[in-house]
Amino acid sequence: MSTAKLIDANRPATFNYGCMGSSFTACRPMATAFFVASSITLFCITSCVTTSQHHFSEPTGNLITKTGQLMYRTPRMTLIGDVLVRYSTTGDFELTLSKGPGVDLLSLRQDAAFAEVKGAFARGGWSGPVSQAPQQLRGWLGLRGQFVRAPDRKTVRYAYGDETFLFRF
Question: In terms of CATH architecture, what is 64-168?
Answer without folding.
Answer: Clam (2.50)
